[in-house]
Prior knowledge:
The structure holds two protein chains of two kinds. Chain A folds into two domains: 3-77, CATH 2.40.50.140; 130-245 and 259-282, no CATH class. In chain A, 37% of the residues lie in helices and 20% in strands. Chain A has nine helices and nine strands. Chain A has helices at 80-84, 87-103, 112-127, 132-147, 190-201, 204-208, 212-230, 248-255, 277-282; strands at residues 3-16, 20-27, 31-37, 56-62, 68-77, 167-169, 174-176, 241-242, 272-273. In chain A, helix 2 (87-103) packs parallel to helix 4 (132-147). Mean pLDDT of chain A is 82; it is low at 244-283. Chain B is of the alpha/beta class. Chain B has two domains: 4-52, RecR Domain 1 (Helicase, Ruva Protein, domain 3, Orthogonal Bundle); 67-171 and 187-193, Dna Topoisomerase Vi A Subunit, Chain: A, domain 2, CATH 3.40.1360. In chain B, the strands form two sheets. Chain B has a four-stranded parallel beta sheet with strand order 4-3-5-6. A two-stranded antiparallel ribbon of chain B has the order 1-2. In chain B, strand 5, helix 7 (146-159) and strand 6 form a beta-alpha-beta unit. In chain B, helix 1 (4-14) packs across helix 2. Chain B is globular, with a radius of gyration of 22 Å. The mean pLDDT of chain B is 90. Classes of the chains: A alpha+beta, B alpha/beta. The interface between A and B is large, with 38 and 34 residues. Chain A: Pfam families: RecO_C, RecO_N.
Amino acid sequence: MSLYRDTGVVLRAHKLGEADRIITLLTRRHGKVRAVAKGVRRTTSRFGARLEPFGHVDAQFYTGRTLDVITQVETVDAFALPIVGDYQRYTAASAITETADRLTLDEGEPALRLYLLVTGALRALAEGGRDPSLVLDAFFLRAMAFAGWAPAITECARCGEPGPHRSFSVQSGGAQCGRCRSAGAVHPPAEVFLLLEALLHGDWPVAEATTQAVRRDVSGLVAAHLQWHLERQLRSLPFVERRARESPIAHQLGSDGTSTDPEVPGATQGTRERGVTHDATAT
Amino acid sequence: MYEGVVQDLIDELGRLPGIGPKSAQRIAFHLLATDPADIGRLQDVLGKVREGVQFCEICGNVSEQEKCRICRDSRRDTSLLCVVEEPKDVLAVERTREFRGRYHVLGGSLDPLSGVGPDQLRMRELLARLGAEEVSEVIIATDPNTEGEATATYLVRMLRDFPGLRVTRLASGLPMGGDLEFADELTLGRALSGRRAL
């Protein structure tokens, strides 16, 4: 029996049989691991709530024929408890774990940088000090950089001419200079480029000094850029609650004919207004 | 591979949840050896379950009529409403014999990763009931897991401004028959914060 031990974040949990679950973890040294947690759904399970999504755990596995089996688990950080106590943070955390799952196609392939990004983002959401929407957009930008799809912000995505530039094209991969500007490009305010740059490099004082309007525009662009490169829609993104109304840029992207391909959803995804219709009815 | 209809039966049984190929084969051969009268009863029930079973128009529980047995029962306390995820949770609460109110079945829990948001659950119906019925307390009895807790959080946010409504959540803590040293941090933390004076 081959045993190994690693720390990891629980990305997903699927029911298996009567009382088991298949747990998808993003681990520090073994990349994405799918393993069976036997009896975890029973109230007397020794795993308890440690293997719930968003949990950061130290686990021991033994290598199985198809799936590995989890034998012991200790909690490193209990991120789930504060995150599920706030619906906005829960939807943002769901989008983070889904993106991490999508970006790691091969199981067992180490992805240390992505693992650190996911734990950092979930820690920021659990601590609650920052706007969940900004944390999510910063994670998306840095996860895209990990995948090699970081948007060009300070130089032209096509010819590389140093900026600042005023146009942004999702299909071209970021900012565009006047000569390279393509038909579907949008023209966000200069503050949008500043916020994109700040989120990509973790400059939080600059990011947190921005207005809600600029954050909305950035959310729209980042969501469109991510889904263009993933080539599939993120299922959790339409449920992410943002603090305000949909971005005007998101509307531009969705209506200019460049982002209407059903395989490549527009930036309107992931810009749901906080306080949905039920709240309005309730009050 | 078996011939014809026997293999078809094994394939169909194998599509049921929790039934693997070996179990499907065992059940199929058990059915072949069973008294024809028993098979006839099984056939009857399978035929009726598709046509005869519907969802209660009030609470969303499975029912043979437009209103389920619990919603038709006039002895039930109409001021108490227990919100659960699935019809099987109604049965679980009923088995306690502690609750005499009525139920509201959401039809699942909020799970963005599976594409389930508030619009996919029976939340509008819950609001409509609270507006039309004299409910003084809503007991949120969603599962004590990540999705169930997030659903409870959403419900609390949705219902907290309802005038004169008390919103409560099932207590969570240590299971009977367990050892404290094996309790996970989340459960033990909940048990500590929810402790009560004796």
